[in-house]
Amino acid sequence: MLLLGVAAGFVWERLATPAEWEVRQGGIVMGEAAAKGDFAVIVVFIAVGALTCLIWGAFAAWTLRDLGWIVTPFIIVLTAIASVIALRLGIRLGPPDPASVKGLTVGDHVPAKLAVDGIAPFLVWPIFGLAGFIGATLLATRLDESAYEPYKH
Questions:
Q1: Over the stretch 122-143, which tens digit does the pLDDT of each residue have?
Q2: What distance in Å separates the CA atoms of residue 54 and residue 133, rounded to the nearest whole number?
Q3: Domain ranges (residues) in the chain
Q4: What pTM does this model have?
Q5: Which pLDDT tens digit goes with each residue over 33-92?
Q6: First to last CA, the chain
Q7: DSSP secondary structure of the chain
């Protein structure tokens, strides 16, 4: 999952389209329409994390299902760590802080730095990791039960 956190960070950085700041006489400003990009960056972070964790949770259920419920805390911890890794990597690879960009002239547009505000986007990762785990566990249980049905009298 930690490697998937790194992969998710790369994917998030590539898919996210940050808001753009516009250089004006008094400094850099972001219009209301451009501010939607900040929200879109968070939505992409959530979507990448949800899909990644859903797949990893299902994989963990298939490979570690003999361990039972004890896998649950590991899924929660690993997906939470992976979300932080993805965030840090995406920020590192993404655009720099607009205030640090040199050589700007009036009318230029500068992308905002990737950011995720609040805790809720980070909670999505463990929730979908557990959803993948539970879904795959239920499916595996159904498949196991159906394998024994021909032997019932």
A1: 999 999 999 999 999 888 777 6
A2: 8
A3: 1-13+37-98+113-141
A4: 0.84
A5: 777 778 899 999 999 999 999 999 999 888 887 787 788 899 999 999 999 999 999 999
A6: 44
A7: -HHHHHHHHHHHHHH----EEEEETTEEE--HHHHHHHHHHHHHHHHHHHHHHHHHHHHHHHHHGGGGGGHHHHHHHHHHHHHHHHHHHHHHHSPPPGGG--S--TT-EEEPPP---SSHHHHHHHHHHHHHHHHHHHHHHHHHHHHHGGG--
